[in-house]
């Protein structure tokens, strides 16, 4: 008899898991609080830039439906505004380089991908239930399914999963987020022949990320401000009108990152739902959710490990979590999915996820001297730029050259 699994939440992790389990012959029910059409015509949710390893998990399941249409992101660049450069007068970049990715990255608007995957899941015979699950529903389902996976992102269901304070150094949001999807952005003049994620750091103020994406109206670019709370970029709170959001995005670009503003003078929003603003505190949670009736459910991806998007890792991690859990489920065969199994499945995922959390939390703080040296040196030493860029694909590599001053200087000496 095939095993019955309930997946609650149809985002990157829930859909990838549901489709993966379905292809392995499991009887899967997927619960989503929105229909595919509602997702497709709704608000943007992310910038969802995914690097090689995460994309490969999708390819392994033959779910890379948009690969040929989405822009191929071949590099990752870093620019740092010179201190005081946004005071009146000529502004400069203290640092500006681009590293080459070993394998390309891509961003497919989650409105396109999740809507498409939901339809595929249903077409392949999966049971898609449109319902916003409450804890009381899960109490019932935990008794009728062999396993309940909660992949509901940062929504209310996280309240079932206790925060792990030892792994969660921040209790407050560390950045105010403001996203705008646009058409009409000109290329970066430094590398007109290939696309890159551009990370613009404004010390003490925040960051502007720019990346190409495939959205509902074709190719577009995303302008994504991350502002230190209470600072000048933390200005989007009361802004409801999308054109006002874009105007503010551009005004801040002109002031703080004029080299990016220079190529953005002709942009327009992709659609009226192409903006997003918000903030959340990064958190690692206990992976096992306890239900009032005594049952247990396993948390997936953002439910259990939610990092700030400053390093663009959440969708990557969701893909890696889904791939890891899928392997743990399949390998477990017919044995019961008890709490011990849940703990082991999470620990296996945490082997990778811990590196993402460590690096992301480090990037939220002011950079220490040796990290500034490293980022500066990458402008002169292409191997350092390339290695930093490829760290976005495999953040475990930062252990080798990023956190400890001795390792950073030894690495830089080895390539100088
Ligand atoms: C501004 C911003 C920029 C980002 N940029 C990047 C980036 O460049 N690269 C990257 O890798 N990551 C990025 N991320 C993070 C990434 O989007 C998330 O980490 C990722 O989508 C998490 O996947 P998930 O499956 O855990 O949850 P989600 O994608 O959030 O999916 C959860 C789903 O569950 C549904 N749901 C919620 N509650 C219920 C309920 N009670 N019942 C049923 N369904 C429910 C939701 O509607 C949603 O569809 C960004 C995030 C933000 C906010």
UniProtKB/TrEMBL annotation:
SUPFAM superfamilies assigned to the protein according to its UniProt record, in alphabetical order: FAD/NAD(P)-binding domain
InterPro entries tied to this protein: FAD/NAD-bd_sf, StyA_sbd
Organism: Streptomyces kunmingensis
Positions of the Styrene monooxygenase StyA putative substrate binding domain: 153-263
Protein name, UniProt field: FAD-binding oxidoreductase
């Amino acid at each position: 008899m095939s095993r019955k699994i309930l997946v609650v939440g149809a985002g990157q992790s829930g859909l990838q898991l549901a489709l993966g389990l379905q292809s392995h012959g499991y009887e899967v029910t997927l619960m989503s609080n929105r229909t595919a059409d509602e997702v497709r015509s709704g608000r943007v949710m992310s910038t969802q830039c995914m690097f090689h390893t995460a994309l490969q998990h999708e390819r392994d399941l033959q779910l890379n439906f948009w690969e040929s249409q989405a822009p191929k992101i071949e590099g990752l660049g870093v620019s740092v505004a010179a201190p005081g450069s946004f005071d009146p007068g000529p502004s400069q970049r203290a640092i500006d380089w681009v590293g080459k990715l070993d394998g390309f990255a891509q961003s497919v608007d989650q409105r396109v991908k999740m809507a498409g995957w939901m339809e595929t899941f249903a077409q392949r015979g999966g049971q898609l239930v449109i319902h916003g699950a409450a804890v009381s529903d899960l109490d019932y389902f935990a008794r009728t399914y062999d396993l309940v996976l909660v992949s509901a992102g940062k929504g209310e269901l996280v309240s079932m999963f206790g925060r792990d304070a030892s792994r969660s150094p921040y209790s407050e949001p560390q950045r105010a987020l403001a996203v705008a999807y646009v058409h009409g952005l000109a290329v970066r003049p430094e590398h007109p022949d290939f696309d890159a994620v551009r990370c613009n750091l404004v010390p003490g103020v925040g960051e502007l990320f720019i990346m190409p994406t495939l959205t509902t109206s074709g190719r577009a670019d995303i302008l994504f401000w991350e502002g230190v709370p209470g600072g000048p970029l933390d200005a989007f709170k009361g802004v409801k009108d999308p054109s006002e959001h874009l105007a503010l995005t551009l005004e801040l670009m002109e002031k703080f990152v004029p080299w990016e503003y220079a190529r953005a003078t002709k942009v327009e929003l992709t659609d009226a739902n192409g903006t997003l603003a918000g903030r959340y505190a990064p958190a690692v949670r206990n992976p096992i959710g306890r239900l009032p009736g005594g049952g247990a459910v396993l948390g997936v991806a953002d439910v259990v490990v939610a990092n700030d998007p400053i390093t663009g890792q959440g969708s990557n991690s969701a893909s890696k979590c889904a791939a890891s859990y899928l392997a743990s489920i399949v390998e477990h065969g017919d044995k019961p999915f008890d709490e011990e199994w849940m703990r082991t499945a999470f620990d296996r995922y945490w082997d990778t996820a811990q590196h993402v959390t460590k690096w992301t939390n480090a990037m939220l703080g002011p950079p220490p001297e040796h990290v500034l040296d490293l980022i500066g040196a990458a402008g002169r030493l292409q191997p350092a730029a390339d290695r930093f860029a490829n760290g976005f694909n495999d953040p475990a590599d930062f252990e080798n050259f990023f956190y400890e001053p001795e390792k950073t200087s030894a690495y830089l000496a080895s390539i100088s």
